[in-house]
Amino acid sequence: MWRLCGSVAARASSAAAPVAARRTFMAKVDTTISIIGAPSSHGQLNDSAALGPQSLRDAGVASRLEAIGWAVTDRGDVTFPPKDTSREGNIAAIVEGNRQLSDEVYDAYLESDTSLILGGDHSISIGSVSGVLRRNPEIGVLWIDAHCDINTYESSTSKSMHGMVLSYLMKLQGIGPFGWLSDVPKLHAKQLAFIGARDIDPYEKRTLKNLGIEVYTMHTIDKYGIAKVTEMALDHLDGRNLHVSYDIDATDPGVAPSTGTPVRGGLTYREAHFIAEEISATGRMRSMDMVEVDPILSKARNETVDIAATLIESAFGKVIL
Description:
This protein is α/β, with parallel strands linked by helices. It is built from 11 helices and 8 strands. It has helices spanning 7-12, 52-58, 61-67, 87-111, 125-135, 165-169, 202-211, 218-224, 226-236, 269-282, 301-315, and strands spanning 31-38, 70-77, 114-119, 140-144, 192-197, 214-217, 242-247, 285-291. It has an 8-stranded parallel beta sheet with strand order 2-1-3-8-7-4-5-6, sandwiched between helices. Helix 4 (87-111) packs parallel to helix 5 (125-135) and helix 8 (218-224) packs across helix 9 (226-236).
């Protein structure tokens, strides 16, 4: 993580109880989940990211969740304005689509025990996380991603909005075009932890270090192992309910290749599932995004969709034994 020198090592060598010993599995009796689709590709270049929600539905996400005891309500898709050829028009579409998504998540937060938001590219998390923050300003956010998505518009070289999500939610340089965020509580550094990061821009590195944000990179995982890293991340957010933002590109491209910005050296299949299983074991997850599943970018698209669906199952309580 970025409060490095000594901080990770101190946590890793602490006498905290093993993860398995602290498990409190969530009961799945009469528990409800709302599924919300956010079919947006506006935050990056590939139009096909918008196909993610339907591909996950077609993979049977609802029936898989019902099979492990959830009562599922599919609230349908938020309607994003059409993708615009101009940068200004496209930003306006992102702003409006995320405003609608924020309202939808806000409503679902009271109507269901938990919510599952299906993206779409990662820019949809401006809407999902803001909707949760409006209900619970103290929510902990676990960002599982190859990237840290904390660029500002000025620092971004690509100007792709899926890489700026957290800078807007944290209001690092104001709220830019997202005027409606003025009424949303700011996400603070202490509420955030990353797992799986390995492609971090120079501005992002400075920001993460300056703010003391917990970042467990792939190097940290290599050094301490996925069990310890997951324990440290969840301990950092201890006492908070959780919003989990799971970008499928956190996994290695050999595991899930059909995504827009793959980066080599990512989570293995079992590491990715272990994180999800341990999140479920806390009983604290109130909402989850699954994003950047792009079903046409690879010949292994069906495999990528299925892996995303199985990670959702693990996060919501499916266990091996």
